[in-house]
Structures are given as C-alpha cells and as structure tokens.
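quick one, 655 residues, struct below
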Amino acid sequence: KDMKMISMMILALLLLFATPFSNEFGVVVGVHGFYLPGVAPQDYAQDDIVFMKVNKLTSTKTQLPYDYYTMPYCKPNPIVYSAENLGEVLRGDRIENSLYSLEMRNDMQCSVVCKIDSLSEQQTKDFETKIEEEYRVNMILDNLPVAMVKIRATEDGEGETVERKTYERGYPVGFKASVEEGGEEKSFLHNHLRFTILYHKDQETDLSRIVGFEVEPFSVKHEFEEPWDDVSPTLTTCNPGRMQYVTHGLAPQIVEEGSEVIFSYDVLYKQSDIRWASRWDTYLLMVDDQIHWFSIINSMMIVLFLSGMVALIMLRTLHRDISRYNQLETSEEAQEESGWKLVHGDVFRTPEASGLLAVHVGTGVQILACTFVTLAFAILGFLSPANRGGLGTAMVLLFTFMGFLNGYVSGVFYKIFKGPDWKGNAGLAAMMFPGVLFGVFTFLNFFIWTQKSSGAIPFGTFFILVFLWFGISIPLVYAGAWFATKKEIAEDPVRTNKIPRQIPEQPWYMSGAVSILTGGILPFGAVFIELFFILTSIWLQQFYYVFGFLALVVIILLITCAEITIVLTYFQLCNEDYRWWWRSFHSSGSSAFYLFAYGTVYFFTKLEITKKVPTMMYFGYMGVVSYGFYILTGSIGFLASYAFVRTIYSSVKID
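---
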C-alpha cells in the first residue's frame, strides 16, 4: 500500500509538470482518471455478501488504543489481519476480520453473533475498565468507519436555526448508570448493534454503492428459548417473527462476574441520494467554518501590521540611512557616523556554535519542504481520510527524502562560516532532529508497550524506521553536504575586522530575553486559532481535513516570522549590537515556547487525561512538536534576516 501511494504521488507530480509544457508546445495530452489505492468504489449486487472489519478501541481519556480482540468479544477462527501501511501502524490501527456479515440490500433482524455462558473475573474487569475509561469501538465497512448519528443545531447565514446531521466516530463499549435512584453505579454493556447502511443505487445496472455506515448501540439482557441452539438460536427478547424488536426500554445487560452475555445485531438498508464521491462529506462536515475564516482574517491583520512596519523601515528609514552614509565625505563626518553602519566590520563575524546553527537552519529547511509538499498532496486529495494512514506515511517518507536539502543547506552555511569538518557537520545534521524524535518515541513506546496497547510500535516497524533513517536519510544528507562543498560561496559585502568591536550597553527592551520573547508572540498569534482545531483532531479523535485553511495559515506564519525578525534585527543593529545570528533564529523560534504553553493550557482545560502514561505521551509528543516548530520558525527568521543584512550592507559605500 505504501508503494502504491508513492507511485500515485509521483504520477500526480508528473501530470502537474507535464500540463504546462504540453500546452506550450501544442502537444495534446490524453488524461485518464484514476482512483487512489484502497479508495476505488466497490459496486454490490443484490444479495452480495459484505464483510465488516473491526479496528482498534480508542478513548480520549487514556489516548491508548487497544486491539479489538483484547476484549472478550466474539472471535472468528482464524483472525485475519488486514495489510496496513506505515501510517496506520504508527497510529495504532489493527484492522481484522469479524463475525459480522450482511447481505447487500437485505435487512436482517436479531442476528446472533455468539454467547458467553459466564463472564469470568478477568472478562468482567476488562469490560468494566473500558467502560469506565469511555472506550469506543471502531468498525469498518467498505472503507467507511462506523459512526453514531448526532443532530446539531446551527445557525445559517440568515440567523435561522438549522439542524445538521453529523457523525461521531465509533460507539461506546458501554455505559454506567444506577439501578436505583441514588444507588451505586453499575456498568452496562452494549451487546446489541443496529447498523444502518446507506446505499446509492444505479438505476440502469441495479448495482449499489455503500455511502453511509451508521450504528445505534443497545444494552439488552437477552432471553432465549431452551435449549440453546448454536446454529439457529431463538431469542425471546428479539424475534422478528413475533414482532419483538430491541428497544432502549428493555432490561440492560449488566457487567458482573458469572452473567450470561449474548451479542446480536440488526442491519437496516436505506437508499440515499448521496453519491459515492460525496460520502465522506458528513464525516468531514464543519459546523464552525466561520472560526477558520476568523483565524485567517486575524492572521492577515498581523501580516498587514508587520508589512507596514517593514515597508516603513525599508522605504523611509533605510533609504535615508543609505543616502546619508553614502554622502559622508570628510573624516570628521565618518567618525560621527552611528547606527547599523557602525558595526559593518563585525556584522559578518562568525557566530559561536556556528556548526550547530548551520545544522538547525538545514533541518528547518527540511521540515519546511516536507510541510509544503505534504500540504500540496493533501490539497490535491491524495491524503484524504479515506486513505487511512496516508498522511502519516507521506510525512515520514517525505521527511526522509528531504534529508538532501538538510545536508545541502547546512553544508552551505557551514562553508560560509568557514567550518573545517564538513563530514562531521553533515553527520550532526543527519542525527540531531531524527535522533531526538527516535529517542523520545522509543522512550514513550516502552511505557505504551507495558500497557499492552496497540499504539506500541512493533519491532518490524521499528526496523523499517531505522532503515529509512540510516539507509536513506543519512546518505541523502551526506550527498547534499557534498554538493554544498562544490558550491561557490559569495563573498561578504563588507570585510570583517580582526578585533571585535565593543558592544555598548543595551536598553532593557533590547536585551536578549525581552527581544526573543517578543519576537515569538506575533507568529504564534497568527496560528493559535488553527492550532486548537489541530490539537482537537489529534487528541479528541476527530477528522481534520481543512488543508486549504492550513496552507494559508502556514504561508501567513512564514511571512510573519520573516517580517518580525527583520524588524528586530534592524533595531538590534541600530543599537550597535552585531550578534544577530543566533538572536534572529531565537526571535521567531520562540513562538515554540508559546505553542508548548498553549498545549499545556489545552491539556488542563480540554482533556480529561489523568493517568501517568497518557500524560507522558501528551507532553512528550508536544515537546517534540514544539522543538520542530522552533527549528522551522527559527530557520525562516534567520534566512530572512540573513538576506536583509546582506542587502543593506551591499547598498552602502565602505572605505
């Protein structure tokens, strides 16, 4: 599945690049439509057998997924695992066959799956624990996840209340309630499922396509006619021949040791006008799209404000400074010069830890390229939720192959800094950020493994990740660094003095800490609203598919990082402080501090995580994301400042 998805991505790129050339040279290109692997429509005839698959159990309270058959549900013999791509394995998916089957367009009532004669102590404990932790069961039919219907009241453009049908993924394992008012709460199991299959029928061929997979769970203490028949049991609590159907008014199935449990299900078919291409719309329905537009407008206002400041500096202040500096003729006038020109002999002095700075900038370019290409594929539809695990797989593979850019960019700046050991620097570039990722994930994976969760990465997947790192990424980094050694480096526009200039005492508002923390506020302000939706999709098990909004926010973020860093660098040079290299990186990179702080607030206000391992997972992952965000935004700020400094010092006459 991974190779097929990569092939489709390459094909899409070839089509994108081929189209303008074909138009330019008058070549007629025949274009044929294709479906993504695993996403092609499946036509079903009347009475066709359709098999249901089961997936992991998930909970927003623990964030630890579990294999469906770790619970005492009805098991097929044998259990067959579906082929999963890298992204599915990393997010803990375990897709398996089940005993639930149905005939296309034939309603089924009171079908019995299996019977547990007596719940053991361990089985009772397993069910009670999962109900207490609010676990939900996930199933798949024709590549659609099962969902419960929720009707939400929203306002339309004219202010009128409109009811919208939305989906909530999965269904609860059970619920807790008191048998008597004020009494002790007991656990009850959802052991009867009523599936509603929406289908779109082709009037010409009489074939159908599944366009919806809904479920309504029930808890019912089933009774049956003695003796029990394993092949065709007769239930008295659910018998279509006697017009007896399961309702919420029946006695529920309590979870206690020694109790008998019968699992059953209904299947109802409903013809729908929804076409196959639109069947995901209800899953992806946004009831708060106005907030996304507010986020964009908010970010645009920040960009306009910063753009005005940059324009003021470039068009007025800098133009006046450059004109005045170029008109200085006498030695007395030259001695009285002040501001950023005064530090021309030190502004390109090699910074401390220059090799580490070069590595951070190269890694930032790698993350930036990976982000843009991933967003491009997502906007084109290649990474839709229908292609499960596609987003995770694409990000891992693209980050691996973008290692070449890391090696090249870090190698170029290492050469600018006149570093002596390009091979050692390339090794640091190849190991630094991936090493942090691998170390944190390995550490957390050990604790996830102790919980026997399906979220623990298997050994085979570990081997694949290590191979991608050492077998592909590191050689590409070294290849990029080797090409960097062959590149001709442009000379600095001014000469660097042998003796460093003394830096005057700086006002408090231009101190390093204040300047750096100030620089991160506006970039974070440009993304914090969209960040809420991203965190919600990750930690509250919701779909996120507004990649168009996200692409706009990322572009605004990059512009904001560049502009705020240019402004702060200019102010720093005007105060005769030439140590701008690391300062420019930290200024925009400090937005990661605010991101982590926001993530902490989100944890305590929006999530209900209380256990140690899920808490470690959350802050471990947020720490890694924040570090990556620091590298990304810091690199953008540094590159913008580097271009700005070279430009202004190339515009003045230096004797």
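The two ends are 64 Å apart (CA to CA).
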